[in-house]
Amino acid sequence: MFRIIPLCTALVVAIPMSRCHHPSDKENCSLTGAPDGMIQGCSAIINRGTDKDLVGAYSNRCLAYEIRGDHDRAIADCDQAIKLDPKYARAYAGRGLVYEDKGDHDRAITDYGMAIELDPKLPAVYAKRGLVYAKKGDKQHAIADLSEAIELDPANEGFKKTLSILGKMP
Hints:
The chain contains nine helices and no strands. The chain is an all-alpha fold and 170 residues long. It folds into two domains: 15-104, Alpha Horseshoe (Serine Threonine Protein Phosphatase 5, Tetratricopeptide repeat); 121-170, no CATH class.
């Protein structure tokens, strides 16, 4: 089993809220504020939004609930985003993050894998899946995913440092 040192490999899955009618809700629902403000802004969009707005609002609210540690609500919101748009990679990535935080590594890997299948250009998702593989003791898959993350984002020093640490592990 591997001991993983947390590094800067945060999953960024900001969702554009291009058609929102109230700028303050749009700003609050983005991933730049406090979780309670995000939940309030996303909830307002959900209560009056269009289908396109709803997917992003549910997905962002999922992450706000995750930040607060409310895993059940986070999963429910990611599930709703996926129901509205089954091809929305970032909702799978968000749900994978929640499962990872809950310690459900198999589900996290599955959701990260689905996100990658739908959008193979998300380096943070490769990195997150690689870290989950490492937690499970699967060094080979962990290194492969971190290597792919670096290929997609060669300037990310956090990915490089994590890969270096993984390479030194037995």
